[in-house]
Amino acid sequence: MARSKILITRLTRKRSMVGRPSEDSRVRQRLIDAAAQLFTSLPYEKVSTRAIATRADSNIGMIRYYFANKAGLFEAVCRQFIDQMTAQLERFVNNSSVDGLGDIISGYYETMAPLPAFPKLVQRAMSLPEDDPSRQIIQRLFTHINDTFDRKIDASMSKADLKPDLDPKLIRMSLISLMVFPFLMPPAIMQMQGIKLDTNFLQRLAKHNKELLKHGLSA
């Protein structure tokens, strides 16, 4: 009888845990979220592991446990967003139409909406010397995105979905500008233009850019 009660108790505990994140995963994500807020608002060298741990209501030991050091945590922050961007690109890479290019912009806006300061972090890191650890991490993680981006443009050109006299490199530059600039615009200029960078505005801008690409690039 006692053994049956123990088994029932264990089964009940297991059922109650199904679908719930473990405490370990919550701590790890809190550290990533706290680090994302600090890394996007301060230069890499100004962010301390102690400040991250305090903001995450954790401790430095947990940073060492999950990420080894500050560089490892910085990479985890960047990878979280870059993996999402890569997934968005992969979703549309097989669609060789101009609409597919517009969908890439929409996907990028959707990914950046929760942390719109992330592109500024990338810009800041890529402006640093080549031996800076934050630049090296960003550059390494972006390599796959760049390759996927090139495949998408090449596929569109080869299927004659784009005007044949267009330069693929310039198309890439135009797409990057449409994707990234809204997040790099200084707040004062946004205010002058009456722009609020929220989900509603990004959805409207994505739709506008999609039409812009269709009329400007389609063969």
Automatic annotation (TrEMBL):
Gene3D superfamilies: Tetracycline Repressor, domain 2 (1.10.357.10)
UniProt GO MF annotations: DNA-binding transcription factor activity; transcription cis-regulatory region binding
InterPro entries: Homeodomain-like_sf (IPR009057), HTH-type_TetR-like_transc_reg (IPR050109), HTH_TetR (IPR001647), Tet_transcr_reg_TetR-rel_C_sf (IPR036271)
Ranges annotated as DNA-binding: 48-67
Keywords, sorted A to Z: DNA-binding
Pfam short name (any one): TetR_N
Superkingdom classification of source: Bacteria
HTH tetR-type domain boundaries: 25-85
Protein name, per record: TetR/AcrR family transcriptional regulator
